[in-house]
What does this fold into?
Amino acid sequence: MLPAQHRLRHSADFAAAVRAAGGARSGSRLIVVHANQTDARAGHPPRVGFVVSKAVGSAVVRNRTKRRLRALAHERLGVLPAGTDVVIRANPAAAQADSADLGHELDRLLARVIERLPSARAS
It folds into this structure.
């Protein structure tokens, strides 16, 4: 489970991570990862949110998919820069994927979006 300080909770925070200028996005057949950093969040712990729509499956399937993604994201909090908000959106294929495949895709996509963030370009 993600600690409270690492959770995105409000729709405005989700919208800022997904739609705001200066953000980064990368996707695959299984998941799409959106990330954004703002000056207001500088120095704060990274936060992660999840979007698992009804297209993924029934409530049981969606909750299981979200639990698996949450556990994988928890293991990767250390690689996220401070002040970063990340939204992980599950595609329908994520419901049938095993955790190893989801983890591999998450690693690959997180690395890609982190290098596209403004703080990575400034370094």
